[in-house]
Amino acid sequence: xxxxxxxxxxxxxxxxxxxxxxxxxxxxxxxxxxxxxxxxxxxxxxxxxxxxxxxxxxxxxxxxxxxxxxxxxxxxxxxxxxxxxxxxxxxxxxxxxxxxxxxxxxxxxxxxxxxxxxxxxx
Length: 122
Prior knowledge:
The chain is α+β, with helices and mostly antiparallel strands. It has helices at residues 3-14, 30-35, 37-50, 93-107, 117-120, and strands spanning 54-61, 64-75, 80-81. The protein is extended and about 50 Å long.
């Protein structure tokens, strides 16, 4: 998502009435409702431009789900639509999380990048 769209969404979420202690659900705030059109429009454009078959997108604020939607298909051949509950294969993305964890442990002095895996994983 481009920086302008992210900034507008952030401002809408951070200045909504719930941030001021009111009981209005964040997703019902008119500014947030308006801002949530941005990720929807962006995802529609990205799908068309990059020929993405399907995706599920969510906006979370302070651990609360504000908005979620499926785009396209979870299975193109059978035309099953993607939903917020669609389960996707993570493929190799877990390597990123593993490497970040290892680097955080290195930063804390708990492991060295030269260590043998046998030293930490019996």
